[in-house]
Amino acid sequence: KQWYQRRVAVGTFFFFSKYFQADDEHYIPRAVLLDLEPRVINTITKESAYASLFNPENIYMSKHGGGAGNIWASGYTQADGLYEDIFDIIDREADGSDNLEGFVMSHSIAGGTGSGMGSYILERLNDRFPKKLIQTYSVFPQTAEASDVVVQPYNSLLTLKRLTQSADCVVVLDNTALNRIASERLKIPNPTLDQINQLVSTIMAASTTTLRYPGYMNNDLIGLIAALIPTPRLHFLMTGYTPLTL
Q1: DSSP assignments along 114-166, one per residue
Q2: pLDDT tens per residue, range 75-86
Protein backbone atom coordinates (compact mmCIF):
# COMPACT_ATOMS: atom_id res chain seq x y z
CA LYS A 1 0.00 0.00 0.00
CA GLN A 2 1.41 3.36 -1.01
CA TRP A 3 1.03 6.16 1.52
CA TYR A 4 1.29 9.86 0.86
CA GLN A 5 2.58 11.51 4.02
CA ARG A 6 1.40 14.98 3.09
CA ARG A 7 -1.04 17.36 4.69
CA VAL A 8 -2.89 19.67 2.36
CA ALA A 9 -5.46 22.34 3.13
CA VAL A 10 -8.36 22.82 0.78
CA GLY A 11 -11.48 24.99 0.89
CA THR A 12 -12.67 27.43 3.51
CA PHE A 13 -12.71 25.38 6.68
CA PHE A 14 -10.26 23.68 8.96
CA PHE A 15 -8.44 20.63 7.77
CA PHE A 16 -5.42 18.54 8.15
CA SER A 17 -5.02 15.83 5.59
CA LYS A 18 -2.97 12.99 4.29
CA TYR A 19 -4.01 11.06 1.24
CA PHE A 20 -4.48 7.37 1.84
CA GLN A 21 -5.40 4.62 -0.57
CA ALA A 22 -8.78 2.99 -0.17
CA ASP A 23 -9.58 -0.63 -0.99
CA ASP A 24 -10.83 0.30 -4.47
CA GLU A 25 -7.50 1.98 -5.32
CA HIS A 26 -8.69 5.59 -5.17
CA TYR A 27 -7.11 8.16 -2.84
CA ILE A 28 -9.02 9.88 -0.06
CA PRO A 29 -7.76 13.10 1.54
CA ARG A 30 -7.45 12.68 5.29
CA ALA A 31 -9.19 16.00 5.76
CA VAL A 32 -11.49 17.30 8.49
CA LEU A 33 -14.17 19.77 7.35
CA LEU A 34 -15.80 21.84 10.08
CA ASP A 35 -18.42 24.57 10.00
CA LEU A 36 -21.09 26.03 12.27
CA GLU A 37 -23.65 26.31 9.46
CA PRO A 38 -24.34 23.87 6.62
CA ARG A 39 -24.52 26.08 3.53
CA VAL A 40 -20.92 25.96 2.30
CA ILE A 41 -20.22 22.33 3.21
CA ASN A 42 -23.50 21.27 1.55
CA THR A 43 -22.29 23.01 -1.60
CA ILE A 44 -19.30 20.65 -1.58
CA THR A 45 -21.04 17.45 -0.51
CA LYS A 46 -24.20 17.81 -2.63
CA GLU A 47 -23.39 20.01 -5.61
CA SER A 48 -19.66 19.71 -6.23
CA ALA A 49 -18.02 17.29 -8.65
CA TYR A 50 -15.71 16.37 -5.76
CA ALA A 51 -18.51 15.35 -3.41
CA SER A 52 -17.41 11.71 -3.34
CA LEU A 53 -13.77 12.60 -2.68
CA PHE A 54 -14.07 13.32 1.05
CA ASN A 55 -14.72 10.92 3.89
CA PRO A 56 -18.24 11.72 5.20
CA GLU A 57 -17.19 10.68 8.71
CA ASN A 58 -14.77 13.61 8.73
CA ILE A 59 -17.38 16.25 7.96
CA TYR A 60 -18.84 18.00 10.98
CA MET A 61 -21.50 20.71 11.04
CA SER A 62 -23.03 22.16 14.16
CA LYS A 63 -26.41 20.61 14.90
CA HIS A 64 -28.24 23.91 15.35
CA GLY A 65 -26.79 25.19 12.05
CA GLY A 66 -27.13 28.85 12.99
CA GLY A 67 -23.51 29.82 12.38
CA ALA A 68 -21.56 32.32 14.45
CA GLY A 69 -23.26 35.47 13.17
CA ASN A 70 -19.88 36.95 12.12
CA ILE A 71 -18.97 37.32 15.79
CA TRP A 72 -15.61 36.02 17.02
CA ALA A 73 -16.86 35.38 20.58
CA SER A 74 -19.80 33.32 19.29
CA GLY A 75 -17.57 31.12 17.17
CA TYR A 76 -15.07 30.65 20.00
CA THR A 77 -17.77 29.80 22.57
CA GLN A 78 -19.59 27.38 20.29
CA ALA A 79 -16.33 25.62 19.45
CA ASP A 80 -15.70 25.14 23.16
CA GLY A 81 -19.06 23.41 23.50
CA LEU A 82 -18.30 21.17 20.51
CA TYR A 83 -14.78 20.32 21.70
CA GLU A 84 -15.35 16.60 22.25
CA ASP A 85 -17.11 16.01 18.93
CA ILE A 86 -14.51 17.91 16.91
CA PHE A 87 -11.44 16.40 18.53
CA ASP A 88 -12.84 12.88 18.37
CA ILE A 89 -12.57 13.24 14.59
CA ILE A 90 -9.15 14.91 14.69
CA ASP A 91 -7.75 12.38 17.16
CA ARG A 92 -9.01 9.47 15.06
CA GLU A 93 -7.25 10.80 11.97
CA ALA A 94 -4.10 11.66 13.91
CA ASP A 95 -3.98 8.17 15.38
CA GLY A 96 -4.43 6.67 11.91
CA SER A 97 -1.38 8.50 10.59
CA ASP A 98 1.81 6.46 10.75
CA ASN A 99 4.04 9.53 10.87
CA LEU A 100 2.10 12.64 11.88
CA GLU A 101 4.17 15.69 11.01
CA GLY A 102 1.75 18.51 11.64
CA PHE A 103 -1.52 20.21 10.77
CA VAL A 104 -2.56 22.60 8.04
CA MET A 105 -5.61 24.77 8.63
CA SER A 106 -7.48 26.82 6.06
CA HIS A 107 -9.76 29.57 7.33
CA SER A 108 -10.82 33.20 7.13
CA ILE A 109 -10.06 35.67 9.92
CA ALA A 110 -12.89 38.13 9.24
CA GLY A 111 -16.08 36.14 9.90
CA GLY A 112 -17.26 34.42 13.03
CA THR A 113 -16.55 30.73 12.34
CA GLY A 114 -13.16 31.12 10.67
CA SER A 115 -11.95 33.58 13.29
CA GLY A 116 -13.60 32.38 16.52
CA MET A 117 -13.74 28.64 15.91
CA GLY A 118 -10.39 28.80 14.13
CA SER A 119 -8.79 30.52 17.11
CA TYR A 120 -10.14 27.92 19.51
CA ILE A 121 -8.96 24.98 17.40
CA LEU A 122 -5.51 26.57 17.01
CA GLU A 123 -5.15 26.85 20.78
CA ARG A 124 -6.37 23.31 21.44
CA LEU A 125 -4.17 21.80 18.72
CA ASN A 126 -1.19 23.59 20.24
CA ASP A 127 -2.08 22.18 23.67
CA ARG A 128 -2.76 18.60 22.54
CA PHE A 129 0.08 18.32 20.02
CA PRO A 130 2.81 20.65 21.34
CA LYS A 131 5.57 19.04 19.25
CA LYS A 132 3.67 19.06 15.95
CA LEU A 133 3.83 21.88 13.41
CA ILE A 134 0.76 24.00 12.71
CA GLN A 135 0.60 25.85 9.42
CA THR A 136 -2.36 27.97 8.35
CA TYR A 137 -3.63 29.45 5.12
CA SER A 138 -5.43 32.50 6.48
CA VAL A 139 -7.67 34.68 4.32
CA PHE A 140 -7.29 38.31 5.37
CA PRO A 141 -10.28 40.62 4.78
CA GLN A 142 -10.67 43.01 1.89
CA THR A 143 -9.86 46.55 3.00
CA ALA A 144 -10.45 48.45 -0.25
CA GLU A 145 -14.23 48.45 0.23
CA ALA A 146 -16.51 48.83 3.23
CA SER A 147 -17.49 45.45 4.61
CA ASP A 148 -20.97 44.28 5.57
CA VAL A 149 -19.38 42.79 8.70
CA VAL A 150 -19.11 45.73 11.10
CA VAL A 151 -17.01 43.78 13.62
CA GLN A 152 -14.55 42.54 10.98
CA PRO A 153 -11.57 44.50 12.45
CA TYR A 154 -12.21 43.03 15.91
CA ASN A 155 -12.52 39.49 14.54
CA SER A 156 -9.25 39.94 12.66
CA LEU A 157 -7.38 41.40 15.62
CA LEU A 158 -8.48 38.68 18.03
CA THR A 159 -7.55 35.97 15.52
CA LEU A 160 -4.16 37.56 14.77
CA LYS A 161 -3.22 37.15 18.43
CA ARG A 162 -3.87 33.39 18.22
CA LEU A 163 -2.08 33.11 14.89
CA THR A 164 0.94 34.82 16.45
CA GLN A 165 0.98 32.66 19.58
CA SER A 166 -0.23 29.24 18.42
CA ALA A 167 0.74 28.83 14.74
CA ASP A 168 4.21 27.97 13.46
CA CYS A 169 3.60 29.35 9.97
CA VAL A 170 0.86 31.60 8.57
CA VAL A 171 0.49 31.99 4.81
CA VAL A 172 -1.32 35.30 4.26
CA LEU A 173 -3.99 35.28 1.55
CA ASP A 174 -4.97 38.92 1.09
CA ASN A 175 -8.49 39.32 -0.29
CA THR A 176 -7.74 42.86 -1.48
CA ALA A 177 -4.74 41.68 -3.48
CA LEU A 178 -6.62 38.69 -4.89
CA ASN A 179 -9.44 40.86 -6.21
CA ARG A 180 -6.99 43.38 -7.63
CA ILE A 181 -5.04 40.64 -9.41
CA ALA A 182 -8.24 39.20 -10.88
CA SER A 183 -9.52 42.56 -12.13
CA GLU A 184 -6.28 44.33 -13.16
CA ARG A 185 -3.93 41.52 -14.18
CA LEU A 186 -6.34 38.89 -15.45
CA LYS A 187 -8.76 41.49 -16.86
CA ILE A 188 -11.84 39.95 -15.26
CA PRO A 189 -14.51 42.72 -14.99
CA ASN A 190 -16.40 41.22 -12.03
CA PRO A 191 -14.42 38.38 -10.43
CA THR A 192 -16.58 35.63 -9.00
CA LEU A 193 -15.93 33.73 -5.79
CA ASP A 194 -15.04 30.63 -7.81
CA GLN A 195 -12.40 32.56 -9.77
CA ILE A 196 -10.87 34.01 -6.60
CA ASN A 197 -10.86 30.55 -5.00
CA GLN A 198 -9.12 29.18 -8.07
CA LEU A 199 -6.27 31.64 -7.51
CA VAL A 200 -6.08 30.56 -3.87
CA SER A 201 -6.07 26.85 -4.70
CA THR A 202 -3.31 27.41 -7.26
CA ILE A 203 -1.16 29.14 -4.65
CA MET A 204 -1.83 26.43 -2.08
CA ALA A 205 -1.04 23.64 -4.53
CA ALA A 206 2.12 25.34 -5.81
CA SER A 207 3.47 26.12 -2.34
CA THR A 208 3.08 22.48 -1.25
CA THR A 209 4.32 20.85 -4.46
CA THR A 210 7.60 19.70 -2.93
CA LEU A 211 5.68 17.90 -0.17
CA ARG A 212 3.83 15.73 -2.66
CA TYR A 213 6.66 14.81 -5.00
CA PRO A 214 9.91 13.15 -3.84
CA GLY A 215 13.01 15.31 -3.99
CA TYR A 216 16.23 16.25 -2.23
CA MET A 217 14.97 19.47 -0.61
CA ASN A 218 11.83 20.67 1.15
CA ASN A 219 10.22 17.24 1.06
CA ASP A 220 8.67 17.59 4.50
CA LEU A 221 6.83 20.35 6.35
CA ILE A 222 9.70 21.01 8.77
CA GLY A 223 12.23 21.47 5.98
CA LEU A 224 9.90 23.72 4.03
CA ILE A 225 9.08 26.02 6.93
CA ALA A 226 12.59 26.12 8.44
CA ALA A 227 14.01 27.77 5.33
CA LEU A 228 11.37 30.50 5.35
CA ILE A 229 11.06 31.54 9.00
CA PRO A 230 14.08 33.26 10.60
CA THR A 231 12.63 33.53 14.13
CA PRO A 232 9.53 31.95 15.68
CA ARG A 233 7.44 35.14 15.75
CA LEU A 234 8.33 36.16 12.20
CA HIS A 235 6.17 33.46 10.65
CA PHE A 236 3.71 35.42 8.49
CA LEU A 237 4.48 34.64 4.85
CA MET A 238 3.39 36.36 1.64
CA THR A 239 2.96 34.32 -1.51
CA GLY A 240 3.99 34.97 -5.08
CA TYR A 241 3.15 33.03 -8.24
CA THR A 242 3.85 33.41 -11.94
CA PRO A 243 2.46 33.21 -14.56
CA LEU A 244 -0.93 34.35 -13.29
CA THR A 245 -3.58 32.29 -15.03
CA LEU A 246 -6.91 30.72 -14.19
Answers
A1: IIIIHHHHHHHHHHH-TTSEEEEEEEEPP-SS--S-TTHHHHHHHHHHHHHHH
A2: 999 999 999 999
